[in-house]
Write the structure tokens for this entry.
Amino acid sequence: MDTSREIMESHRQTLKRVTLLSLGRYHISEEYGFLLQNPLKELPEQYRPWMEIASELPHLIESHQLRAHVYKMPLLDCRFLKSHREQRLAHLVLAAITMGFVWQEGETQPPKVLPRTLAIPFAEVSRKLGLPPILVHSDLVLTNWTKRNPEGPWEISNLETIVSFPGGESLQAFVLVTVLVEKAAAPGIKALVQGVEALLQHNRDTLLQALQQLRLSIQDMTKALAQMHDYVDPDIFYTVIRIFLSGWKDNPAMPEGLVYEGVATEPLRYSGGSAAQSSVLQAFDEFLGIQHCKGGVDFLHRMRDYMPPSHKAFLEDLHSAPSLRDYVLTSGAGCCLMAYNQCVEALAQLRSYHINVVARYIISAASRARSKMPSHPLPHALEDRGTGGTAVLSFLKSVREKTMETTLNPNA
Ligand code: HEM
């Protein structure tokens, strides 16, 4: 093959790969983005023992009965979980029971061993899905929503979770506001795929439209995130909800990790659930060519191992797509440069807004909790760390700075 044919061929291969991004092959939909479309609410009949516990989870945890129920659970075979949606619900259910089991008594003396009747099927369904055996964003948010009235609007009042934790309405809203943020991102994900196609075809008008749509979508995500303040009480989030998202990696309350009985003899360590495991912002970063500092990249890339493998593959394929930033820099299309900068700015604003949310729900709430219970030793072990295990504010600020630094100078 001569060089030009090779270039054409590689161009065709990239085009093929990137076009496939839009075909649902990655469990991404134009309408729902990364949210699972129509998540199931029930498992096949033989899994009733799991569903009975999951449906009572807040009560069983609050009344300190969950562990006793888990010890009585029969060992069930995962073979009858046939469809992807069944497996996703099973992962959500087993993950939620696991978090409740571990944190039922708070951070004091968490168990060292997850019993085999829970650990074996959880590891098995995790293996099938390519997810780690712990609660992840794709469980708590992407798989954990249903519309009360299917024809009704995408509003908190018309949504409910499938599995819940203690924390009442604040818990529900914490999950559902995040669902709404993911939903608001869906047109942005669609625009991003159109943008990559426009780049491949050197179609400036389509690229411009895609960038404008992406900016709108990012701004809608910020508006959706703002609802956190309307529905989620910071003190309930900090003192009741947050612990159920905590993992057993870099967590001083469980320094050794957790033994999954019947799965591995050595304890395993996994990070807790965090929206840092959402693929949305990482997809936007890839498309816009935003490069984070080494520590930030290491953490964000590690979070990809907590995403469904098809979503992780989407991010990797986006990474090898043609560079939007190079095109904007070299094409001399001033309108595209402006639209690009507006996307970067909208993303930096979303990240600033998110930092304010974190300051209110973690930093301020932690200091209030401390002043109420100055002698309480353990619950604050994680106070300045995210559930994913980061030193929160410095990490988030660095991610925002790197986003802002990506802005292009129109006169360069
Ligand atoms: C009460 C609400 C929220 C709190 C307290 C919160 C807290 C945090 C924390 C502590 C981190 C640092 C990583 C870690 O250790 O977990 C983080 C990262 C992150 N969060 Fe949130 N979060 C909230 C809502 C959301 C929502 C609704 C989204 C949207 C999907 C989101 C998206 C992200 C992303 C993408 C990161 C990674 C950093 C970045 O790319 O900017 N968060 N969050």
Observations:
- Residues 26-405 form a domain with the Methane Monooxygenase Hydroxylase; Chain G, domain 1 fold (CATH 1.20.58.480).
